[in-house]
Write a structure and sequence with these properties.
By secondary structure, the chain is α/β, with parallel strands linked by helices. 37% of the residues lie in helices and 15% in strands. The strands form three sheets. Strands 1, 2, 3, 10 and 11 form a five-stranded parallel β-sheet that branches. Strand 6 and strand 7 form a beta hairpin. Helix 1 runs parallel beside helix 3 and helix 4 packs parallel to helix 5. The mean pLDDT is 93. The structure holds zinc ion. The site of zinc ion (ZN) has 5 residues, from loops.
Length: 281
């Protein structure tokens, strides 16, 4: 039916459970180094899962993680995946000046390239924080030497989103912006690309949405998740509000099984292979 021929982009935002933006008002950054870090074991599980299914992916890795766990970076590259950048300190682009944003994404690129020996082409802003009021950030990303960004979520959401942005890859100057996937229905864009929505929806709905993008839009989907989402045993953060608790902990125990199904139901590859094909020579 055509779906089999499309390779979709699987992306993982490599950060730990205590670094998510929704916890920023509960966990001081100075405390990060004192928290139990679980990203190494969760990454080992993800790399095994991908290997079992012959899938390749792009890992948008936080500089803070790369600096402390360089083995995580080396394992990504050794397994044939694309190493990309999630910035250094997981600060939302909407909360930074242009100079501070540039410094953060430039530092992360240098750090990741030093550890991996690879050119880092892709960047994803924390919490899809490129929105209408900070479009200057796209020029910054290009200036820092990246070739593409996957930082725009064309939906309405209380923490992020740019509902009128294009739904599929587009050029901004020399940079390609590759938004995460939505489905267009009832004159709205609906999230279809992972994260909390993938844990919230029944698996069959996620599969239907992704198939629709492949069959109706005839476009590759861009799906994302985080290492902490497959970790039901992660330490619970105390004192958080009910909405944050619901969004973060919902269906963690179902996540690995759902990812396994996703890996068999679709073909998955790296962002650079799908969206930045090298010209044949
Ligand atoms: Zn993130």
């Amino acid at each position: 039916m055509g779906v089999d021929k499309i390779t979709n982009a699987l992306t993982i935002d490599v950060e730990d459970y205590f670094q998510v933006s929704a916890f920023a008002s509960y966990i001081n950054r100075a405390e990060w180094a004192t928290r139990e870090c679980r990203v190494e074991r969760n990454m080992d599980r993800i790399l095994r899962l991908l290997d079992d299914n012959g899938a390749k992916a792009t890992f948008f890795t936080l500089g803070w993680i790369a600096e402390r766990y360089p083995e995580v970076v080396r394992n990504i590259v050794a397994n044939g995946h694309e190493l990309a950048s999630h910035g250094y300190a997981h600060l939302r682009a909407t909360e930074q000046t242009e100079d501070a944003f540039y410094a953060d994404i430039h530092l992360a690129k240098i750090l990741l390239e030093d550890i991996s020996g690879q050119t880092v082409k892709g960047y994803r802003a924390p919490s899809f924080s490129i929105v209408e009021r900070n479009l200057w950030a796209l020029a910054c990303i290009e200036r820092a030497g990246y070739r593409y960004s996957s930082s725009v979520y064309p939906i309405r959401h209380d923490h992020y989103g740019m509902p009128d942005a294009p739904r599929f890859a587009y050029k901004v100057g020399g940079l390609t912006e590759i938004p995460v996937t939505t489905v267009r229905a009832f004159r709205c864009n609906w999230p279809a690309s992972g994260g909390g929505y993938f844990r919230l929806y029944p698996y069959g709905l996620s599969r239907w949405l992704l198939r629709r993008v492949n069959l109706i839009d005839r476009q590759p989907a861009v799906f994302y998740f985080h290492p902490w989402e497959i970790d039901a045993a992660q330490p619970r953060v105390a004192g958080i509000d009910a909405k944050t608790r619901f969004r973060h902990y919902l269906n963690l125990e179902r996540m690995e099984g759902r990812i396994r199904r996703l890996l068999t139901d679709f073909h998955w590859g790296r962002m650079d292979d799908i969206f930045l094909p090298e010209p044949a020579c």
